[in-house]
Structure prediction request, 131 residues.
Amino acid sequence: MMPPHADRPPVLDTRLDTRRPVIPLSRAGADVLRIVSDPRTPVFVTEHASGRRVYGYWRPLDADGGRGGCYVALSTAECDELYAAGRITLGEPVRDPAKTTYRARPARTPAPAARPTVAPVRTAGARRRAA
Prediction:
């Protein structure tokens, strides 16, 4: 079976100057990553004993529109694709007899390497001038 992103060619992520190809996100994948990246919206993954995974978050009640106050499930296929691509990570497991729950978070990008400091090179001529 072909992966769901096989129709999209990988691109080189030049922002981090890495050689790891990054698969372009679909519109649904970008929406899921936006939700997972929002620190106000904790997203959890529940893995049931049968192996079924459910990704979701709690949508608080919107006082203006009167909407919300419910649990919202995210697309398992999109979330699994983001996890497989290394775009989201799972936190420490909370185990229950029938299920295991993880916190889903966006993957942290490695900090760029600090530029090495270069010690000044002293030449024989510089020592004579300083004396």
Summary: Confidence is low (pLDDT under 50) at residues 1-6, 9-19. DSSP finds three helices and eight strands in the chain. The longest helix spans residues 27-37.
